Amino acid sequence: MLAQKIRVATFLTLLLLATATMAENSTQFNGFTIHHNAIPTAILTPDVASSYKITRSKYRGLLNISVIKDVPGTTGQPVSANVSAYAINLIGRRHHIDLKQIQEGNAIYYIGDFPIVDGEMLTFVLEITPEGSERAAKATLKQEFYID
I want to staple 49 with a disulfide (CB 3.0 to 4.6 A). Which of 54, 103, 107, 127 is the partner? Predict the structure, then answer.
């Protein structure tokens, strides 16, 4: 149990650090805040990547999405959602991203990996229907990836 808590804390810390170094992206929608970011999987520790069955590679990226219900006077409450995503490059090649829900403690987030190419600008197109909402939010995120 302690090892699992450490693993979760490490994973969330890495995602927060990646978000801090790459612009924070969020979308406000109908009483919800949708946080979304994309990082190279090579920055994950081998233990974290293995725990979440993520391929750790300089040629793979990780999309992370969380949906927070806005609650006045608090940082909000994580909620489940129906989430779909794809990435499209500058020449129009589209890549569907399979997302899996991760729920640990109060945290709920959706992750999926995808291929990356050096210098490639990807636009991520997200469709999110939060639990308790009848409408879907559409959000986009642009990220350029570099391979060392």
Answer: 54
